[in-house]
# Entry
Amino acid sequence: MRTRILVAFLLVIGLSFYLVTVTTIHLVGDSLFEDTVQSGMSGVAELSAALGERVGAEPADAFYQRLLEAARTSGGRLLIVDMDGKVQADTFDAHCGTRVALSEVYTLLRGEQESDYGFHRVLGSAQEETWVGCFASALVSGGARVGALVMIVSVQDTVDSLTFMRDQMMVIFGITLAAVLVMAVLISRIITKPVAELSDGIERMSKGDYQHRVHVPGKGEMAQLAAAFNQMSEQVMSLDEARNQFVSNASHELKTPLATIKILVESMIYEDEMPAALRKEFLGDIDKEVDRLSSVVGDLLTLVHIDSHKLRLHREKMIFADTVRESVRRLQPLADKHAQTITVDIADPCEMFADPGKLSQVCYNIVENAVKYTPEGGSITVSLHRMGRDAVLEISDTGVGIPQEDLAHVFDRFYRVDRARSRDTGGTGLGLSIVQQIVRLHAGSVTVQSQQGKGTTFTVQLPVK
# Structure
């Protein structure tokens, strides 16, 4: 494809140069011949005016001598032609008494024009063809047209000059075209090489090779485009890796409870004499696994809706403080079960225009995490206050904390700091990721600070509108 484009480009350049050269030659040639025609026509007109009144008025010898003198002055050959087309006088004494076969003469004899001209190729004295110009003008004597004066001059010098100029211009054209074509090839390679690099990179990326990077030196537009492509490749590769990891994690999260349910059900099927208490315990375990499955599926659907931009916020005027209190109230029984203390500190009601259902999920998920990962007898503090035009919700606990190397990943999907303990608490590893996405939909931010063994603080900042 690129080769065809380059060939077409070179053909266009070559044709353009050829047209310019041919046009220039024609313009110069037309100019040269126009000067020759004007000179010849003005000369023959003057001579015909001077000789017309002397035709028949002077003796033949005297008139012929005058004609020879005029021929020497004009530098050409003169013919006197009567109205029948016969040559009455020829300064070369070659065609006297013969009829001329020049169309430019007969247009005058028929009265169609006062003067005319033509160019002809004839045999010269050295039996070589040469170009001559024939300029004819009507001879008028006593107010009547009596014939025509024909002046024949050589225009071979003009033709030779034009031919020489044409040859020189063709040589110059050839040299210039060759230089331009070489430069065009070099420039096109410089220009098309980055395009080829980008094209190759796009083709490789379309086949799944997201690790390929395009290298275009410089700081021009193509280099910027290559940098943008490399950045896009990195993002696509990250998205692809995240997708594969997400599918793997989701499959694992769904497979684990399904495997547990299968084991429990098979045990119940093949155990004919299972005690009622054990059967009830198995059914309770199955119920818990089904709840876990339902929770995972629900969280996955929520994330899918967020990723596909199908999740819509149903904003309304709300008191954020009421949402916080309600979330704490719902989790209070779980905290009481672990002898934990939840302290609520509301400094401002934080009236805002937001989705109360989604923000309730944010509060519930973070407080639930705090309760689950705080040891028995620990404390949890939930505070809400205004800071400028933002509502700031802080949820702190005295739990086990999060290692520093894990802080950057707590909002990743299916990420667990302690996988064994996280499964025991029934978490899906999606709650904090959902929190982050919902907060972002509200144009807010969520951050975490933690020290291992001392506790964790989540801070949610939302604009108050």
User: Anything to note?
Assistant: The CA atoms of residues 17 and 176 lie 9 Å apart. The domain at 2-162 is CATH 3.30.450.20 (Beta-Lactamase). The two ends are 56 Å apart (CA to CA). Residues 2-52 form the longest helix (51 residues).
